[in-house]
Amino acid sequence: MSNTWAYISNYSIYSALAVFTLSFLAHAVETAWAVKAPERELASMGGSAPSQIATNPSKILDYKATEKIARIATAMMILGFLLLFTGVIARGVSAGRVPWGNMYEFSITGALAFCAAYLAALQKYNLRWLGLLVSFGILLTLGTAVTVLYVPSAPLVPALKSVWLIIHVITAIISGGVFLLANAIAAAYLYLDSMESKGERSAWAKPLPSLDALDQLSYRLVALVFPLWSFSVIAGAIWAEAAWGRYWGWDPKETWAFITWVAYAAYLHARVTVGWRGRRAAWLCLFAGSTFLFNYVYVNIWGSGKHTYSGL
Amino acid sequence: MSQDIQIPEIGSVGLLRYAWRALTSMRTALILLLLLGVASIPGSIFPQRTQNPIAVGDSYKNSPELSRWLDRFYMFDVYGSPWFSAIYILLFISLIGCVLPRAIEHFNGARALPPATPKNLNRMEFYATWVPVGNEIETAKRWLKAKRFRILERDGAISAEKGFLRETGNLLFHLALILVLLGISFSSLFGMRGEAILNVGERFVNTPTSYDSLAYGKLFKEGKLEKFIISVDKFDAQYNLLTSAPEDYTLNVSLKRGDLVTVEKHVIKVNSPLAIASTKIYLQANGYSPVVTVRDSNGDVALQGAVPFLPQDANLRSIGAIKAPDAQPQVGFLGSFLPTYERSGSDGAVSAFPQALDPRLLLSVWSGDLGLDDGTPQSVYRIDTSSMSQIGLKALKPGETYVYSTGSITFEGYVQWVNLQIVDDSGKNFALLGAIIAILGLLASLFTRRRRVWIRVGENVEIAGLAKNGAPGLEQEMALFERILKGER
Lengths: 312, 489
Known about the structure:
The complex is a heterodimer of chains A (about 300) and B (about 500). With about 300 residues, chain A is mainly alpha-helical. Chain A has 2 domains: about 1-155; about 155-310, no CATH class. Helices cover about 75% and strands about 0% of the residues of chain A. By secondary structure, chain B is an alpha+beta fold. Chain B is about 30% helix and about 35% strand. Chain B has 10 helices and 23 strands. In chain B, strands 4, 6, 10, 11, 12, 20 and 21 form a 7-stranded antiparallel β-sheet that branches. A 5-stranded antiparallel β-sheet of chain B has the order 1-23-22-3-2, covered by helices on one side. In chain B, strands 13-14-15-18-19 form a 5-stranded antiparallel β-sheet, with no helix packed on it. In chain B, helix 2 (about 25-40) packs antiparallel against helix 6, helix 4 (about 55-60) packs across helix 5 and helix 6 runs antiparallel to helix 8 (about 165-190). Chain B starts with 10 loop residues before the first helix and ends with a helix. The interface between A and B is large, with 50 and 52 residues.
């Protein structure tokens, strides 16, 4: 029975991988189309009015063509999310426990959280343009999980058998997903900022949100999830006390969780008290997010310590 | 051109005051916080003595010169080093100096009323005006009070303010961090932590001599060790048949506490330690102890008992040393214990499964001076064979005896051992309390919206609003306020 579920999980995740690829392609086409549009118009007009294009190209851009493909891209993203969700749940059922006991499972659940964070933010903000980056991130994570990190579904080692596994790891994964989304937005900010500082935005980037909006959004995401991250670290400490007899032991994973916490605390201070905005804040946000990624990759794979029983 | 510039004398008091101000400024606190983050990095790169003393030893063996230099900068004891302590103590002081005065100011400000309504309301972020229909002030007062605004009514105008909780939460968060730090220091001053390896069937009396390793906090009093005796009745380990990974460990113990008479039965598992008052007993590791009898050439017993061996891999191939200093001449055995024996072509004898399905004891026998008499400390798992000679080599099944030139050894069987960690750490409750308050404070400070709202009724009704710290949603909230005043809702 558990084998059937394991198969369901694997097939769902392969399907999700395929659907996310389609979503990625659709997003790519949308972006590319928007870039090409002015040239098409230019050609059809016989190059008679280049000055008009240079001053106000958005007027002659036809976004109806890209609108359709953009909708397809988002629909694929939602379908991919559902498939991945099925895959993660089925993985949990097949193992008879929560599906985050090793790095393969962290990766698929993390990709799910990242996708969920994006789709949730999409409800409120115009973030479709970010889909290219998000679907790429998900593909990268899932691809690595399936090819490099895969381990057969199995029960947990005794140290992981605790209700804190559910609380500590899911909060860490959700925090990670949202941190990465904030990072993607901060990166987009920096890219668009450098584009604007050289002159005007390229045609494809015109409909994207203003720099101010991006700046605010990445801050809000971090502010939203920083308490959750703090909670995750504390939940980890409580669990460590129960399992290892100490709540804090400067294990490499703990150390880097602390560093991430400090970096985001500094980011929030820099914004709220010192008034950092824009480029400096975006760089700090990227730095803080990269300490999280570093913790995930370095400590799990090359590090030593008590957190490295993740099945690798 | 040169001119003498008169530098005013600050004096030592002034200097101190200057240093205090610099230390307790927000910027210094932030820099110290970042510095603490950076300072903790080396501890995740270099092995730490407290966690992995063996790796530190290996580092010394591989590159002694580099290791000596690293040690000079406390790279193997980062979190106990003077420079790390210096950073967090300074941060601690800076935090107190920064937050306490603000907390007092905030507390006093809590009773103050909002400032009077300014003249020009149309300069505010939100502004609307219309011809009065009557009753606006009363309606506004009711609505603002229901929305928990603090209000000041004067000269036909209301000045209202809310979002006080933001600063309260902010201060609470920082004060709670101080509590966390206090909890941690309390733990390290008044706590104790020790480990003991016990064979199944053995008894542990909680006195300092019973421990294999024991560390006290600087202010821990020895007499404060909890009074109890614990006996290891049974240990059960279950393994996954496919992966050999452990699935469950269950330890059954008998406990006598206080009066040392009443016997209680308890179960200890990896995630559920046994608590005796503020002392907790954790199940940390386990392994096998071969039970052997060593006889000398006359047939007299020189050693009998269970000797703990250290697990080396997932299938619990374990190594250890059996020392019989009372045999004449002294004899020692370097051994491997294989719970499920298997011969592999490349590695020789290995263990195929962690459970003892077909155990073997592989021994090499050494005769000579064990080196135990000169007082140099020795690992119980190793033998210094420099002044000994090998006189035999044998693999034994349970019940078998190997006879060598100066005596014999019988492999009687095996028992399991468990490593118990015994901890008394009462500071952790303060740390936990601090952490919970910190999160609540953080939530309040991040999600409270600070607002100022004004209404003045003269020839026209004027309302205005201001969002502090760029809190979102002002527009909608003010639009709602406007509709309510106009009686549209």
